[in-house]
Amino acid sequence: MRCQECADKLDRFVDRELTNTEALEVQLHLEGCPDCMEHYEFQEHLKRVVKHSCDCDTAPVAFREKLRQILS
Amino acid sequence: MAEPAAQTAFAEEALTHLDTLYRGALRLTHDPDAAQDLVQEAYLRALRYQHSYQQGTNMKAWLFAIMRNLFWDRFKGARKDDVSLDDVGDFVLYDKLRDEGARPESDVLDKIAASEVVAAVDKLPPLHREVVLLVDVEGFSYKDAAQTLGVPIGTVMSRLHRARQQLQRSLYDYALESGIVRPGGSAQVSQL
Questions:
Q1: Residue B154 CA, distance from chain mean position
Q2: What number of other Cβ atoms are within 10 A of residue B150's Cβ?
Q3: Could you tell me if B14 and B42 are in contact, meaning their C-beta atoms sit under 8 angstroms apart?
Q4: What is chain B's pLDDT, residue by residue, as a tens digit (192 residues)?
Q5: Any chain A CB within 8 A of the CB of B9?
Q6: Measured between alpha carbons, how far is A59 from B6 in angstroms, rounded to an integer?
Q7: Beta strands of chain B (E only): which ranges?
Q8: Which residue on chain B is closest to A49 by alpha carbon?
Q9: What residues in B contact A70, CB-CB < 8 Å?
Q10: Sign of CA dihedral B147, B152, B154, B160
Q11: SS3 for chain A, per residue?
Q12: Cα-only R_g, chain A
């Protein structure tokens, strides 16, 4: 696999959307290519940072109770 | 109308996804009161149309689809077409940081406050923001995201790619402004 092909598949690799065979091919390339591995780790890290930054908001308790009343 | 016991069970199951819907509504509306209105309306509609929900399918995706459709219909006047994301080219934060000698590149991400990351997500156009919310924040598969948004998987992938590029640009701009990185190639990641 060439670096460009790896880069093209990086989003889907990070999102666990490749087939097992494709994922294995990317994994093998990453293990032999420090540049692509660094790029992958960065993308993975970015995804984690976005998730952790945005998933701390939770519905207020009073709103949850209000909904429960309305829906019951 | 469903039997009371069945309706209660449906409501209870639906409420296990409340945080996901509330987060999504908050990011779409940017306003806690509007988010609560939107979510409440979505739940009422879900209850009304619970017969159309197929047991064993993804209830979270079904509820989110109801909520985001309401958002587009009521909060945005169904004007989806005029919201686009400028092509930011091949800008990649990672490449910029490498060019400027900020290493390791990932350290920069740890120095950016969560509130700035949320602000960068909020700046995305809604059509792109909702893909990031579904895939990156809520962990939807491309298939579930496509179903929720009513678009092909390829559209999910392209919106996600462009959204991530735009996010990286926003975060890079913030990192420069705040001195986390310095332009011109002399930069190490500064120790804030």
A1: 17
A2: 10
A3: no
A4: 567 777 778 888 899 999 999 999 998 888 899 999 999 999 999 988 888 887 778 899 999 999 999 998 876 654 554 455 555 555 566 666 666 665 556 677 777 888 888 999 998 988 899 999 999 999 999 999 999 999 999 999 999 999 998 888 888 888 878 777 776 654 444 433
A5: no
A6: 24
A7: none
A8: B109
A9: 40, 43-44
A10: negative
A11: CCHHHHHHHHHHHHCCCCCHHHHHHHHHHHHHCHHHHHHHHHHHHHHHHHHHHHCCCCCCHHHHHHHHHHHC
A12: 19
Question: CA B131, CA B142: separation in Å to the nearest integer?
Answer: 9
Judging contacts by C-beta atoms under 8 Å, the chain B residues touching residue A59 are 18-19, 21-22, 39
Among candidates B61, B65, B94, B60, which has minimal Cα distance to B164?
A: B94
Under 8 Å between Cβ of B156 and B146: yes
Closest to B19 measured CA to CA, from B36, B34, B6, B1? B36
Interchain proximity B43–A67, CB inside 8 Å: yes
Number of other CB atoms surrounding residue B131 within 10 Å: 28
The 10 Å CB-count burial string (b at 16+, else e) for A35-45 is ebebbbbbbeb
A50, B136 contact by CB (below 8 A): yes
Q: How many CA atoms lie within 13 A of B95 on its CB side?
A: 7
CB-CB neighbours of B79 under 10 Å: 8
Q: Give the residue carrying structure tokens 């919106």.
A: B159
Distance from CA of residue B50 to its chain's centroid?
25
